[in-house]
């Protein structure tokens, strides 16, 4: 697919962007040391107290560059229909012209870094290669953690392996075409932003932002948007899913993948510390899973990433002690608060806020300030290998065989704590109809309920209707007895006073236990209009303080509210026209019949 050699592409890009220097990166410790020192020197990084947080750094972004920019994210397929109604589409030639004009001279005065990386263990049949060109050393260091950066990748590409060219510029040259200098800032970026994907040539062009999924191009851009297209073409699935191994007290293992929208609990479930004795969860991934059928008709999954880019707020010893342990050292923090002794803090790290902090914007902060000290989408970037519950299979080229798939979202109403699909097609319908209250992970209005099918709304690189059909097809190709069972979960249902009905976090083990018992055919379920619900007596509620009323509320399936959901689904499905799989319309009919 990619016709260019890396060298030619680098040379062409340098001619266009006019950097003062080109550096070929290799992912080494020496490179880490050099770039962290550079960033400390130029003020992008604050070195944290090495006694409290060894080899760790705090970056503060431009206040206008703090999250993914979905309305500036584009799928540039030749036909608009191939991008589908859920994506922003632009004509690829038009977009390339525009981007060329923006990238022209965009690296003047800066160093251009060439970062060869692998998503997935090098040597895995499921791994894919990319090369990111970037003018941001922060991005290079983040790629060190989040991907496998190595010269071996370049050798394999030069020997003929497929690769994805991923071009990134913060769009803040230090000189204009006349040589007139502009001052550098600690977080260079551009008010104009474009995150553009070319699924027909597997290219990524990202301009103007240095933050997260906008800039670490191995993540959402390659592993999900381009990845989903590769998966459709090649018969596999690129998903916004965590990946864990659940072990029962009897020592039986279950591999579970779960798709929840951004900032809806993937990292928390991936690192769950069970509250039920004898159960164990080990971590394989917290954000992305690449899932492919194997010769035995099972689905095998790998985590293509090598690091966590986790939401900081809400992460504390009570909610996610494993994450707190993971980031004790060698961590890049972005947009969290700084303590007077040179450590980090965010809302939820401790019950009580320190008396005095420097907030994420660099201003002095106290609990009386009346605004959060850390940005709601502040993040920690740290290697998977530092996670105390990391599973031995995290780096395995074969990945793990999936037993169950979970879909979830943030729903204050309607959706019960857990419900099992009747079969694969119904499970795909569950995934296709996920709605969730929007979080701070993307620019937009936090709290608005929106459709987020498969938690892939911002990440599917082609027509979402075709994507649902692809899921149906992949399921048909599996051996029926080896198909993962599909469940829907919701940790976020609230009572009339707006309080969460379910304690969540470690207590979610109780739901996992029920799921495991269903997989083992140890317990029956009760049919409902929306799927199979637990018989309350089968739930392990030992030691949990929850009233019968709360339990009833958390499982209520309100027929009139669900009829309204069904009406909205009809409206939503209509957008997909001929791309809506007939199986999805049939599932909607079944739901209506069940509700009547
Ligand atoms: P991305 O990295 O953006 O894709 O998100 P993620 O799904 O990994 O998000 P994460 O696990 O970091 O979720 C963060 C938010 O979800 C925090 O505000 C948590 O407090 C909240 N959260 C996670 N699990 C639970 C739960 O079981 N119950 C409740 N009430 N909140 C939860
Ligand atoms: C998400 O928003 O789903 C993330 C963070 O995982 S980012 O990489 O910025 O997209
Ligand atoms: Mn994510």
Notes on the structure:
By secondary structure, this protein is α/β, with parallel strands linked by helices. It folds into two domains: 6-46 and 69-235, Phosphoenolpyruvate Carboxykinase, domain 1; 239-278 and 289-304 and 394-595, Alpha-Beta Complex (Phosphoenolpyruvate Carboxykinase, domain 3). The protein is built from 16 helices and 32 strands. The strands form eight sheets. Strands 1, 4, 5, 6, 7, 8, 9, 10 and 11 form a nine-stranded mixed sheet that branches. The protein has a six-stranded mixed sheet with strand order 15-13-14-26-30-27, sandwiched between helices. A hairpin with a 5-residue loop joins strand 22 (357-358) and strand 23 (364-365). Helix 2 (29-42) runs antiparallel to helix 5 and helix 15 packs antiparallel against helix 16. The longest helix has 17 residues, at 218-234. It is globular, with a radius of gyration of 24 Å. It binds guanosine-5'-triphosphate (GTP), sulfopyruvate (SPV) and manganese (II) ion (MN). Manganese (II) ion (MN) binds at residues 240, 262, 287.
**What overall form do the CA principal axes indicate?**
globular
- Which small-molecule ligands are present, each listed once? guanosine-5'-triphosphate, sulfopyruvate, manganese (II) ion
Q: What is the CATH C level class of the largest domain, in words?
A: Alpha Beta
Architecture of the largest domain, according to CATH? Alpha-Beta Complex
Report the total helices: 16
| N- to C-terminal distance | 51 Å
Return the CATH topology of the largest domain.
Phosphoenolpyruvate Carboxykinase, domain 3
- DSSP strand content: 15-25%
| Sheet with the most strands, sense and barrel status | 9 strands, mixed
Q: Give the overall pLDDT as a whole number.
A: 97
Count the beta strands: 32
Using only CA atoms, what is the Rg? 24 Å
């Amino acid at each position: 697919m990619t016709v260019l050699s890396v060298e030619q592409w680098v040379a062409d890009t340098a001619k266009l962007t006019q950097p003062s220097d080109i550096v070929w990166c290799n992912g080494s410790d020496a490179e880490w040391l050099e770039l962290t020192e550079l960033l400390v020197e130029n003020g992008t990084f604050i070195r944290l107290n090495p006694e409290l947080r060894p080899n760790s750094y705090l970056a503060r972004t431009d206040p206008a560059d703090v999250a993914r920019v979905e309305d500036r994210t584009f799928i540039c397929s030749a036909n608009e229909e191939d991008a589908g109604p859920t994506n922003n589409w632009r004509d690829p030639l038009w977009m390339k012209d525009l981007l060329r004009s923006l990238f022209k001279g965009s690296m003047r005065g800066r160093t251009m870094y060439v970062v060869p990386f692998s998503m997935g263990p090098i040597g895995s049949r499921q791994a894919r290669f990319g090369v990111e060109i970037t003018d941001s050393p922060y991005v290079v260091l983040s790629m060190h953690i989040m991907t496998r950066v190595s010269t071996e990748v370049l050798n394999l590409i030069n020997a003929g392996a497929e690769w994805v060219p991923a071009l990134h510029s913060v769009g803040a040259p230090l000189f204009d075409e006349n040589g007139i200098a502009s001052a550098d800032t600690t977080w260079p970026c551009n008010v104009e932003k474009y995150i553009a994907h070319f699924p027909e040539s597997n290219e990524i062009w990202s301009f103007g932002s240095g933050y997260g999924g906008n800039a670490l191009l191995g993540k959402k851009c390659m592993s999900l948007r381009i990845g989903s297209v590769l998966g459709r073409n090649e018969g596999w699935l690129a998903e916004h899913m965590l990946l864990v191994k659940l072990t029962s007290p009897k020592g039986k293992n279950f591999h579970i993948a779960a798709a929840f929208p951004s900032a809806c609990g993937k990292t928390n479930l991936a690192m769950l510390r069970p509250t039920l004795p004898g159960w164990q969860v080990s971590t394989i991934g917290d954000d992305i899973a690449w899932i492919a059928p194997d010769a035995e008709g099972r689905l095998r999954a790998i985590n293509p990433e090598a690091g966590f880019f986790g939401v900081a707020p809400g992460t504390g010893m009570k909610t996610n002690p494993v994450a707190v342990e993971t980031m004790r050292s060698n961590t890049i923090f972005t947009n969290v608060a700084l303590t007077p002794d040179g450590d980090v803090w965010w809302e939820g790290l401790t019950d009580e806020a320190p008396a005095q902090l420097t907030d994420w914007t660099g201003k002095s902060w106290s609990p009386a300030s009346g605004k959060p000290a850390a940005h709601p989408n502040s993040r920690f970037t740290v290697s998977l290998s530092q996670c105390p519950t990391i599973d031995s299979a995290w780096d395995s080229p074969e990945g793990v065989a999936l037993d169950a798939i979970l879909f979830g979202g943030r729903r204050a109403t309607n959706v019960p704590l857990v419900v099992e699909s009747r079969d694969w097609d119904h499970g795909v319908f569950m995934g296709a109809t996920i709605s969730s209250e929007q979080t701070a992970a993307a620019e937009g209005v936090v709290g608005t309920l929106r459709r987020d099918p498969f938690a892939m709304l911002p990440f599917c690189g082609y027509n979402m209707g075709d994507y649902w059909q692809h899921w149906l097809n992949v399921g048909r190709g599996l051996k029926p007895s080896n198909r993962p069972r599909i469940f829907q979960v919701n940790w976020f249902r609230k009572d009339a006073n707006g309080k969460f009905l379910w304690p969540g976090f470690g207590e979610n083990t109780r739901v996992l236990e029920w799921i495991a018992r269903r997989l083992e055919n140890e317990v029956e379920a009760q049919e409902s209009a929306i799927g199979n619900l637990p018989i309350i007596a089968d739930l392990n509620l030992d030691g949990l303080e929850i009233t019968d009323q709360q339990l009833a509320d958390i499982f209520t399936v309100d027929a009139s509210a669900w009829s309204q959901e069904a009406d909205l689904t009809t409206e939503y499905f209509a957008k997909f026209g001929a791309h809506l799989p007939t199986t999805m319309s049939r599932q909607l009919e079944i739901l209506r019949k069940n509700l009547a």
